[in-house]
Design a protein that fits this description.
By secondary structure, this protein is α/β, with parallel strands linked by helices. The chain has ten helices and 16 strands. A seven-stranded mixed β-sheet has the order 6-5-4-7-10-15-16, with helices on both faces. Strands 11-8-9-14 form a four-stranded mixed β-sheet, with helices on one face. A three-stranded antiparallel β-sheet has the order 1-2-3, with helices on one face. The structure holds 5-S-methyl-1-O-phosphono-5-thio-D-ribulose. 5-S-methyl-1-O-phosphono-5-thio-D-ribulose binds next to α2 and β9.
Amino acid sequence: MSTFQTLAWVKENNTLRLLDQRCLPNKESFLDCNTLSQVTEAIKTLAVRGAPAIGVAAAYGVVIGVLELLGQKQTISKGQFAEIVDKLAATRPTAVNLFWALARMETIGSAGFKNNLNGAILCNNLLKEAHLIFTEDERDHRLLGEHGAQLVPHGARILTHCNAGALACADYGTALGVIRAAHSAGKELEVFADETRPLLQGSRLTTWELLKDKIPVTLICDNMAAHCMAKGMIDLIIVGADRIAANGDSANKIGTYSVALAAKAHNLPFYIAAPTSTIDFTLTNGCKIPIEERDPDEVRFFGEKRTAPAEVKVYNPAFDVTPANLINGIITEKGVFAPNQLAQLKP
Ligand code: MRU
């Protein structure tokens, strides 16, 4: 267990408790959600973020949506259930873990409607599934960490982008899970964390959680990554992913693609760390991965301060796609795979 809890189900009052990531690193405060709209808002505004964590939060969101309706009318129809799922699915388009978790919840819902289960039993079954998604997430990221740690040499200097840590999952993390596993195996290492404009997940979140675990970390601005590689300060790159196409093309936080290009130019290994639930076998390549575009003010402002003319036109894609040919390996809970070996993982 990490020294903090990203999200938890509080059974006494059927609440999803989120460590509010919008407030980090300045304040550790919790956001309690017990309505569907609180959960959808928390996902949209990045109070909870990171592909696996979004999936887990959405699973609990389904339970909350059902409980809310049962509280009002004691029953729920198939159509109302579908509406709950649709509202959660409309929160963020890129991370496939969201849709993967919702599909699991839909399977439980459909079985409940088919068997005419009463609302309380249906809800109980949905809650069990959400807990299962949570515990599998914890288990898989530890396994992923162990596989990835083999790739980390003693004394490694590792560059990462965005936050793919315990804050982005139920616990432990993907890219930071590999780093945690290598560190706890006694390997000396240092992490270089890209700041990750515009929302600063690297500087606000990655450095916060690594410092908490006493893992050495140095913060750099995004535009320093290639310079650090050229100076011989980096040995390998490990990042997370939001959606991986069947050929290995991987969507991750905007800026990842340029890190991968710089890594190739400097002959440095570039790894993606992600659970198999992040692989979308319905997409043959990365061209069709939906890329979220966010509020232009995220770019016009740096934190609270406006740093661009209010009327300037802005382009603000939240993710980019790194082509498979720039990726040395994809670290999953089932082992490490070259992009062209992903077909072996197809369910
Ligand atoms: O917009 P965010 O903060 O949700 O983006 C998160 C990322 O891009 C992460 O790198 C990715 O979800 C992997 S998290 C294990």
